[in-house]
Specification:
Four copies of one chain form a homotetramer. By secondary structure, chain A is of the alpha+beta class. Chain A is built from ten helices and 13 strands.
Chain lengths: 442, 442, 442, 442
């Protein structure tokens, strides 16, 4: 499941682990304690659970004379691994005030030191490749939780009427030229018998494999994500009140929840955009009309596509994950190496991105927002979960969830790749999720 | 959406409509009134709603001087067509005791007479093909509800501790030879670039189109459905208690609902099979070990496949809908014309079926049980819903449901075809649903 | 628990039992089958359960060679008597379509015949007084269910958008003189050390005993019930929108349920009273402003009293049950014997009642509406439940319910008495419940 | 609503306020942040809300040139006073991580200083008596929340599988002589026309007034509370499995919640008492058989009384609040002045108390456990709520709650008095609640 990384493993381990602590800087023990909804977790829990992962999957099998740091933590900080044993109920993670934040940090430090010792002098009996693979899996897992720390913190702060900011300050300015782009341009693809999925070197999760063939009809992808300004048009056109744009389950959800706008949008004092503002990790900000609209459910994304298709009289829809990956992997747009991905955490208030790429390549593929696709999350043909408890990582969630592709401004840059499959239920909105339109051709 | 049927339309209309009333024979007004759960509907409602469909989509657009039979029925018996206007809440269908059953029957008769008049002498101004298409859609819709009448009645009777029977009497006897078949044989398919979906003459729903190409890796399908006897083995092996076989959502569902056996299985006095019996439309019957196991959720079907794969050390799983259709459409097994489909309603207690087909062709494809697939229900590439309110028929449900293929013993025979896509949420059990295993090859 | 009735027991038994069937005249099997909410029961169930009561508490202990009519009915039609054994779940009463209505009627007839035989020739071994007491309890129980048959039917019909009527036709006309009575007059009582509760001859439930002393401060009761016209004033004054009039639990209930008017009030086409109408057993009728307002929760009744107290600057409130009984029992108003109670079932649409009583005696005490009191339902000092399973009749409900006094237009006349204690949770509205104001004096 | 206290007001204010902070000593910011259930509140919220009370009801009306410390706190820390305006939703109190604990403490200090300034030099324009009354109400309110801080903290810690202790250490030892007391002795009272309720000097809440007459039949009270040992007998006798001892609502609650023992009782390793332990603010402790049993619902207390009555063949039951107050106020037992009340917070693990009182006076009336009574919480005859927003303090909760009397080991000693009326719904268990039996005499 992994391949060699150019960075020395011990250095990489130290760097990635420290990044989790950096995210918590400036937060109080209370900020790190609270669980604002069952789907979210306390930041302290994230710090503890990622440590549990290393203790369980690295130290326990590889460390000679292994003994647990605290025997109760094995149950307390297990997330969903039935193969590891009992678990503390998910919805009660926020009730565990002891161990406190300082104790969890101490546990992190102790486990990190033991992992570092292992990496620097692996015992002869240990299978070096297996140890490296386990550590790398732990770091990939850590990076997933780094994104969740931000999404969960945003949800928590949004529950506070005082609207606190994680990193106060202005969002990056928008290039003037971009704001003039009224409609997305389209990037066409011929399709045919293509291959998707991970193969070769580099880490990938089991759910990205095996690489396999798939037939695609000709299609086009929008050059950029749907913007906040376009979303205002949808709202002004009564998009949230008209059942014909909505999937039946989406309409029921919308009515039951009273949904009228993207999550974290709220009306506040101020001119423009009908008074709409958006709550971000930088606090409450006015809309940024040319920037992508975020925190959408799949239901909303899908309704938008239907409405837009009717407006334009064209077969617009969400892309499938195969269409998306084929476009992204074919080098159709600027990749990570080309700098399309900016310093993620500076962008958490989602300004419009510079369209540096020339020609008709899709923009904003990586590092802005996770993009909802029309694909349900399921196994690739020939899929085999990893052996052991880590086989629960992905496979057992392959029902009634939808795939998101790309990676958001909250995703660590090195955690992003074209074959990555993120997945959430269709009603999910607290992730950094947006949409890009696709169109049938021919 | 349709093509010519060899039977004269008026005759076909009268025949299909009368079949609905035949299903209700022997039932009391009370039996036809009650809604036993929100997912089910009263039989009287089915009789009324199918009439509403003809009044709304045939009489209203095609009958000169159309006037409604009763103005309130338009709202009262609309199921989910937002395009037609308001609807009575689904969960309250059983509360409408007026109009009574006699009034609904009278409404049926009146609408039938008006449709017959239209069919026998369509007004010059009417588009004959459009009228015929609308009537045919009404009849296909009627046949879907005929199956639902049986599934909903079974659920209602199962709620009654007195265990009433719809059609008392013994289930057909099982051929002695069949009981000796201990394990399924396998039917291999090469795969490659195949086509699935409906094309050409004959009725099909919009969701079966367009016919399109899909790449399949080599696979095999089990020659027959999983049996009641095999299910007992799964139960005896602790299959319902072991989380590793289950999808995460399935395990949560199983625990919350306390599921320990297929729906309608219950322990009763009697020898054999651990005392397990199954409640059927013929009343409470002992298990029939070589007969297919029915009333499974997708979660259970999927767990069984994982357990069986581990037992046998082979990559067993549910088939995809493309694999299933490719096998069924390629004439791999005996079709409807060959008599594999028996008189459906005689079989509602699901005996084992005669394996008349020779060679290695899959059996029991049509007319036994709907077969859960591994495919989420979504649009085919290039899918366009029908225009108008009937466009709500299928497309708006394309999220968080799974596809079932084949057709059950409760499905009208002429409503069955290889391209048919049935769909329900993964937890659904009150339909006649079973499973057939698939296996990766090569 | 009972005393001699002047009517011969067998005649009384036949008369009261036949009255239940008379209430169901004109109703279909469907009307009698459906349970419109968990708190209500199907009419067929009422007919069956009252028969179960006679079979269980009369035939089983007193009939020589007793055998049950159908062994399953003992469980199927038990309501809440844990001492009798298992029970069918209350919320599933409406799902039992078999036995059908005809079978239940046949069961009634068979049990009635057996009770009649017992009453006409009690076996020598039987304790005659105990048999008579058991039969009388069965008849009192029957009369309670007669009222529930009407309240439950009203709730069911109110769920039907076609607004069916049980007994169509106009409500009785209102005397012109009454409409002119703008405000209630007051009937003062000195209080002091009074006695309440049942004693002496005549049937009473255990919860009406023992008769006991209670100290009352001076008080006054309104001469009549609060009217529909007065309720409109409360609504016009924003009574449903102003939290300060409401108990905290009442306000939460009001907001959660979106309550804006008494149950069964709805806006419809028509002039006057802001378009408000009320759904009754006679169908949808306009308001009758001088008639009492019905179908109130205790929360609404209490809020009205607080609002009225603030308007008038007087200590208005609901009466306690002791105050009510003291006034009613002291002959302060016209009693049953004086004809204040009209033919109940003619009045189900609740017109204003003739104020025939002269002087300052309270009117409308009996036979109009159950009157909410300020008293929680609890045991009288020295209360002892009846022995055996019938001890579950009243005592086990003595928590978190409030007492209503009087008797409504749906109560059988002979079931009404001054010491009678009806009880329901504070949110209950489907009963014929209204309110009378009280005022502290001195 | 108050009278002069002998302690100078400013000194009393400082002392009572500081006690709240003392309770939070040793707790982390996380411990003070979390809300473990909607009925409980975070400790930080208690510290903030009690400060809000002084700011709103003391500073705002009495301080010249009043300005709020932080304008948003008025909404954020309002509990339920509709008259003060909007409120933050109760169930979301735990989500407010900002202001942090330090900010709340700073707010406390600032408001305390301003109140102290007022008390030391009340402005000429202020009504001195009204100011003193408002401050005293704030302190009484503070003391109520001091008890809630402990009950809410206990609930939170009980949710933690690590079983943390607030104040570790052993519970006080039990005198050997007490353990030998096998059954309660009884204290008889003649009853008659008695007076209950508050009158005269000293603070009381509005719900304790007016003092009024009530007739009591002869009765007896148990000399002591029901013990943990007696509760084990009830459990061993199947008391939790036998519906006949339970109120109907209690049985439904017990079944729905799966209740098998008092709250905080759990089985753990160890000998004796069937392995039962109790979780306390001192951590997990073994049972203390002669000590009172705590954390009972009214349903459990009532069931115990019925079971005991059947065992003994005597009319045992819960006392009414009038019976309790008459006994307590008549000097029947040792009062606060006599030292029956120990240092509350030392006793939170509830050992048996020394029966120092001689003769037949009831023991343990004050300072052990709140005692459930048979009385629903309602207004006394002639009750008038206080004017203004503080009138919401008690009156609006007078429905569907039951009265508890006495005061617990978590109640500040000076907050206890014979006329005090505590009230909670019948299912409440997280308070320090127990029971004392009563018996009808004559």
């Amino acid at each position: 499941m992994m391949a060699a990384m150019s960075e020395p493993p011990a250095q990489r381990h130290a760097r990635v682990r420290s990044q989790s602590l950096a995210l918590a800087e400036g937060l109080s023990e209370a900020d790190c304690q609270v669980q604002s909804m069952p789907d979210a977790s306390p930041l302290k829990w994230h710090l503890a659970h990622t440590t549990w992962f290393f203790e369980t999957f690295v130290l326990e099998p590889f460390e000679p004379g292994y003994a647990p740091h605290h025997p109760a933590y094995r149950v307390l900080f297990n997330s969903y691994y039935q193969g590891v044993g009992e678990r503390h109920p998910r919805a009660q993670r926020g009730l565990v005030t002891r161990p406190g934040l300082a104790e969890v940090r101490a546990w992190r430090a102790a486990v990190d030191a033991r992992v570092q010792a292992l990496l620097r002098a692996p015992p002869a009996a240990a299978d070096g490749a297996a140890l490296a693979a386990a550590v790398e899996l732990g770091l990939q897992h850590e990076q997933q939780h780094q994104e969740l720390m931000l999404t969960d913190l945003l949800h928590l702060f949004a529950c506070n009427p005082l609207a606190p900011a994680w990193r106060p300050g202005p969002a990056p300015a928008i290039g003037a030229g971009e704001a003039a782009d009224p409609a997305p341009a389209w990037c066409p693809f011929e399709g045919g018998l293509v291959e998707i999925g991970h193969a070769g070197a580099g880490f990938a999760f089991d759910n990205e494999t095996p690489r396999h063939r798939q037939w695609l009809a000709p299609y086009a992808l929008a050059r950029r994500l749907v913007t906040q300004g376009e979303w205002l048009e949808f709202m002004a056109a009564g998009g949230y009140r008209e059942p014909r744009w909505w999937l039946a389950a989406g309409w029921d959800w919308r009515q039951a929840q009273g949904i009228e706008a993207p999550q974290y949008w709220q009306r506040a004092e101020g001119v423009g955009a009908g008074g709409w503002h958006r709550f971000t990790l930088r606090g409450l900000l006015p809309l940024d009309l040319p920037a992508p609209v975020a925190h959408l459910s799949l239901y909303e994304a899908d309704a938008y596509a239907r409405w837009r298709a009717a407006c334009e009289g064209r077969p617009l829809r969400l892309p499938t994950e195969a269409e998306w990956e084929h476009a992204a992997a074919a080098g159709a747009g600027p990749g990570l190496a080309e700098g399309n991905f900016a310093d993620g955490q500076a962008w958490l208030a989602l300004p419009a991105r510079a369209g540096s790429a020339k020609g008709d390549a899709p923009l904003q593929l990586f590092g802005d927002l996770w993009e909802w696709t029309a694909s349900s999350y399921g196994p690739y043909p020939g899929f085999r979960p990893w052996a052991g408890a880590v086989g629960e990582y992905n496979g057992k969630f392959m029902i009634e969830q939808s795939v998101l592709r790309g990676g958001s401004c909250a995703t660590p840059r090195e955690h992003i790749r074209a074959s990555y499959r993120n997945f959430f239920p269709a009603a999910t909105r607290w992730q950094f999720s947006g949409l890009r339109l696709a169109c049938d051709l021919g």
